[in-house]
Design goal:
The complex is a heterodimer. Chain A folds into three domains: 35-235, Immunoglobulins (Immunoglobulin-like), CATH 2.60.40; 240-266 and 451-486, no CATH class; 273-447, 3-Layer(aba) Sandwich (Rossmann fold), CATH 3.40.50. Chain A is 51% helix and 17% strand. Chain A has helices at residues 2-35, 84-102, 111-127, 138-158, 160-165, 241-262, 273-288, 304-323, 334-350, 369-383, 397-407, 422-428, 437-446, 449-477, 481-486, and strands at 41-47, 55-61, 75-83, 171-180, 185-189, 206-213, 220-222, 226-229, 292-297, 327-331, 362-364, 387-393, 411-416, 431-434. A six-stranded parallel beta sheet of chain A has the order 11-10-9-12-13-14, with helices on both faces. In chain A, strands 3, 4, 6, 7 and 8 form a five-stranded antiparallel beta sheet that branches. In chain A, helix 2 (84-102) packs antiparallel against helix 4 (138-158), helix 6 crosses helix 14 (449-477) and helix 7 runs parallel beside helix 8 (304-323). Chain B has nine helices and two strands; from the N terminus they run H-H-H-E-H-H-E-H-H-H-H. Chain B starts with a helix and ends in an 11-residue tail after the last helix. Chain B folds into three domains: 1-66; 67-178, no CATH class; 192-271, no CATH class. Chain B is 76% helix and 2% strand. Classes of the chains: A alpha/beta, B mainly alpha. At the A-B interface, helix 6, helix 8, helix 9, helix 10 and helix 11 of A face helix 1, helix 2, helix 6 and helix 9 of B.
């Protein structure tokens, strides 16, 4: 009897347990169905505009449960369908980089290196059909493997458009990323190098779908896939039209004023005290029998400030050659040194004193910023130059140089387009060319009509900027500010 | 011809650089990157010229016994030792005869310099240079504890390379940079002397901006100082800065156009 009772009790417990479990499952199902938010709508994907390709922009309309409705949407997941060939491509990419990393280490015969090579051979055999004679010289073997992997990699790349066209056969959805609730756009931008893991191929038909997520990420509302959409590079960046127009107008202005100047019109140029002081400073150096120090700054030969500085250096070197004063030009950049040597040599030739030119007038010091400062400051304190000229690009070293020059008792003339350094030069130097005055110096020194013409074009362009600034101010008062500023909007 | 070819090159590549700014296509990017690579290549060749220039200036200074000529030995020592360390690295834990090799290699270089600067006994220095060179070559061939690394960056991990760089160069450079604080103080003192109306205005503005960051004045001045300082920085200061920036932008475009069109030729040695 007791036994029967026990059995009944156990059976009752089992039934209750099963019933409870079923009820729980049912409750869970109900919750899942109830919690799944409304999906995003109107999913759209298109090639990102004005770029080099390898990028697709995905947009959608927010789920009704995002901010409204149940308010359950916490964010969105963006998925792209990826064919199996993309996985093969990833494996080949990894193998290629492993083989290339192994090539310089073929001389390494350690146990660790041998293990690494064995693993590489196994990976190779799994991916590539072409066999390579392992018994050969290790270098030859690795080079043969690299060639075979490269060939397979390129073949896999070529096959990507066809693989994507096969949608939805033999592939799966890959999560690209997540965005927060309220966001309705995602940029699927990848690398352009096929060897980069972030590579996104051009001219492949991609398919996208968006999940509206809830706090429980297994519960989501899913959109229908959208596609195919291809990405590709553009031949003209329409976002830069205002820049193109500005360059064309400014170029036309320059050409007009240059031709006016060529016809003999007298163009007034405001005197630049810093440039006018150069001749006096060279005269002072000659009288004192001390050298002139010319610093071209830390810019490269490609910087416009350095190019302008070469012109001023040419003029200074010519005067120096005429007055037979010493010139010291320590440089920071080897290419700048080479150009500066040529400039100074030409100036000595123009002055009719080519024999006075010395090779060590322009020399290289170092490409380390503060080591350069230490060297130039040392020269200043040893040589006590009568004049220090700083023209070009300067950074944190500007004040270190100018203050040491002041301590050495030199007349100092500076010019830079680095806005943060201008105050330092103004404080520590006797004359300072502010910003564009540095570029104007070449025209001012040369007094050639065509150079003066370009200066006039700059003046008129500045006047136009002032007019536009005032027009913008008025437009903003009249509540047309956005309409006006949109005319000048430039996108990258 | 000597002038026309460079001018033509500048014109073609200058125009391309304008063109590529408006063309985002991959092909345009490829050419752009290819040209940038060329800058690197030219830079590397120019670096060799730079090192030669530094070597020559230093040797000339030693030869002429100019002021502080002995420091030129330090420059040359640093230059060659870092090159040597940067291209060599031990193959395992042991350094073998590396110290002897470095010593003989440095002595070789010093003897070569001595040969160049000495006014007498050049033969002796040259002979010694040959002797030390032979010793270095023999050690380099037969000592398997270390090796040269020309194609990889292994040498840059060499203990001695890192030690010289981290424990000598970096502290020296930091010292140079730290001097800036004192120079700013002395420059500020000169700039803020109230000699005339403009200098007085500058002094007052600077005092307001500096005092704004003084925590002890906050209870007394309240937000007044912060608001005045912000106004100074965001209105007159920013307006002046923007005016300069616009001028610089136009100046850059004008200069670039002049260079591309061959009007500006100062960089070629002709103003």
């Amino acid at each position: 009897m007791r036994y029967v009772l026990r059995c009944v009790l156990v059976a009752a417990l089992l039934i209750c347990g099963t019933a409870y479990a079923q009820t729980e499952d049912m409750v869970e199902d109900t919750v899942m169905t109830a919690m799944a938010p409304a999906p995003a709508t109107n999913v759209n994907a298109f090639d990102t505009d004005n770029d080099h390709g390898h990028s697709v922009t995905v947009t959608w309309d927010l789920s009704v449960d995002d901010g409204g409705g149940t308010g359950a949407v916490t964010g969105y997941e963006i998925h792209r369908w990826s064919p199996a060939e993309m996985v093969t491509l990833d494996s080949l990419r990894g193998l290629l980089s492993a083989v290339e990393a192994e090539l310089p280490n073929v001389a390494d015969s350690s146990a660790e290196a041998n293990l690494r090579r064995d693993s590489l051979r196994l990976r190779y055999a799994a991916l590539i059909a072409t066999s390579v004679a392992v018994g050969d010289d290790l270098d030859t073997e690795m080079k043969a493997r690299r060639a075979a992997v490269k060939e397979a990699f390129l073949a896999a790349l070529d096959g990507l458009p066809a693989a994507h066209a096969r949608y939805p056969e033999n592939g799966n959805w890959q999560l690209l990323g997540k965005v927060a609730a309220g966001v309705s756009t995602y940029s699927d931008a990848g690398g352009k190098e096929p060897t980069a893991s972030s590579f996104i191929p051009d001219y492949c038909g991609f398919h996208y779908k968006v999940h509206a997520l809830t706090a429980d990420e297994t519960v989501y509302g899913e959109t229908a896939p959208f596609g195919p959409v291809e990405c590709y590079g553009q031949w003209f960046n329409t976002g830069r039209v205002p820049v193109l127009l500005a360059v064309l107008i400014f170029g036309a202005l320059t050409i007009i004023f240059v031709s006016i100047a060529r016809r003999g019109a007298d163009l007034y140029v405001r005197p630049l005290a810093g440039i006018e002081a150069v001749d006096d400073a060279i005269g002072r150096a000659t009288e004192m029998g001390r050298p002139i120090l010319y610093v071209l700054g830390l810019g490269t030969a490609a910087d416009v400030a350095t190019i302008a500085s070469f012109t001023i250096l040419g003029r200074v070197a010519k005067r120096v050659a005429e007055y037979q004063t010493a010139l010291i030009v320590p440089t920071y950049e080897p290419i700048v040194m080479t150009v500066a040597q040529e400039v100074v040599k030409s100036s000595y030739l123009d002055a009719g004193r080519p024999d006075d030119y010395k090779d060590d007038t322009v020399f290289f010091v170092t490409q380390s910023q503060f080591a350069y400062v230490a060297a130039v400051n040392g020269i200043m304190l040893r040589e006590l130059p009568a004049t220090c000229v700083y023209m070009g690009k300067f950074f944190a070293e500007s004040l270190l140089l100018a203050e040491t020059g002041a301590l050495a008792g030199s007349i100092q003339i500076a010019g830079t387009d680095e806005i943060a350094q201008i105050p330092f030069f103004i404080v520590a130097c006797d004359y300072t060319l502010i910003g564009e005055e540095l570029y104007a110096a070449s025209a001012y020194l040369g007094r050639e009509p065509i150079l003066l013409g370009s200066l006039k074009a700059q003046d008129y362009a500045k006047a136009a900027v002032v007019v536009f600034a005032l027009a913008g101010l008025l437009a903003s008062y009249a509540s047309w500010g956005h309409v006006f500023t949109d005319l000048f909007k430039v996108t990258n | 011809m000597k002038r026309q070819i460079p001018l033509a090159l500048v014109f073609v590549f200058g125009l391309f650089m304008i063109f590529q700014y408006f063309v985002p296509h991959e092909k345009s990017e490829w050419v752009y990157e290819f040209l940038l690579d060329w800058i690197l290549v030219i830079g590397i060749f120019a670096l060799a010229l730079g090192i030669w220039s530094l070597y020559k200036v230093s040797v000339d200074k030693i030869r002429a016994r100019k002021e502080n000529w002995a420091y030129s030995y330090v420059t040359l020592f640093g230059l060659f030792v870092m090159i040597l360390f940067g291209f060599t690295a031990p193959n395992g834990e042991s350094w073998g005869l590396y110290a002897v090799f470095v010593t003989t290699a440095i002595l070789t270089i010093l003897m070569i310099i001595q040969t160049m600067v000495a006014k007498s006994q050049k033969g002796l220095y040259l002979g010694l240079a040959g002797l030390f060179l032979a010793a270095s070559v023999v050690i380099a061939i037969f000592d398997g504890a270390w090796s040269f690394h020309f194609y990889t960056a292994e040498g840059l991990q060499n203990y001695w390379f890192r030690a010289f760089f981290d424990h000598i160069l970096i502290p020296i450079l930091s010292t140079m940079f730290s001097l800036l604080a004192f120079f700013i103080a002395s420059a500020a003192y000169r700039a803020f002397r109230a000699r005339n109306l403009l200098a007085s205005l500058l002094l007052i503005s600077a005092l307001i901006v500096m005092l704004r960051f003084n925590p002890y004045l906050q209870p007394i001045m309240g937000d007044y100082m912060a608001k005045t300082s912000n106004w100074l920085m965001n209105v007159p200061n920013l307006a002046a800065q923007r005016a300069i920036v616009i001028g610089i932008g136009l100046g850059i475009v004008a200069t670039a156009l002049k260079v591309i069109l061959g009007i500006e030729r100062g960089y070629m040695g002709k103003g």
